Amino acid sequence: xxxxxxxxxxxxxxxxxxxxxxxxxxxxxxxxxxxxxxxxxxxxxxxxxxxxxxxxxxxxxxxxxxxxxxxxxxxxxxxxxxxxxxxxxxxxxxxxxxxxxxxxxxxxxxxxxxxxxxxxxxxxxxxxxxxxxxxxxxxxxxxxxxxxxxxxxxxxxxxxxxxxxxxxxxxxxxxxxxxxxxxxxxxxxxxxxxxxxxxxxxxxxxxxxxxxxxxxxxxxxxxxxxxxxxxxxx
Length: 234
Fold this sequence. Notes:
The protein is of the alpha+beta class. Helix content is 41%, strand content 19%. It is built from 9 helices and 8 strands. The chain is elongated and about 70 Å long.
């Protein structure tokens, strides 16, 4: 629990002392933890005055104050707005410099952008390998493994399939793609060479191809794989 009547710094110092840390250790560790969780400018603010997003950061800060080897986070982005989610993603990645971070979540788009390894549980048992990356679980795109921090897109398009394939094959923005047609639409999973999804969408529109939907492609594939791995009889 967080103590609303304490400042951020006082609370973290208190938690550190409960963990057996000396005053000298805390003097050295506290600024580092505040910086890593992006709380430096809130160190003297009462916890009761913090927003939901900052309170979550304080919770993470108290969990790492004593340099644990393992940090477990349960749904760390729940209740956060898009800006706070992006900031929290940065905080979580920073934690990996010192600790193994185990993140429990049902939010697969967030998992695909944050995590290096994925574990899927079904009835308390692992149904993936502990070394599986997002790309190892989901099909690779165009024969290329993009990794969790590369940009994959799932595009739902209206137009001629051959025209879509030709544009994607020739575009310098595209490192690889899987494209197929069905139900009057063209579905493409695309791995980009750079973080420029807007430029690719503009190129499609300029070519007369209708863009119906743009989604996180890796997360979309992970959702399909997750459902397959956890369904009854799988």
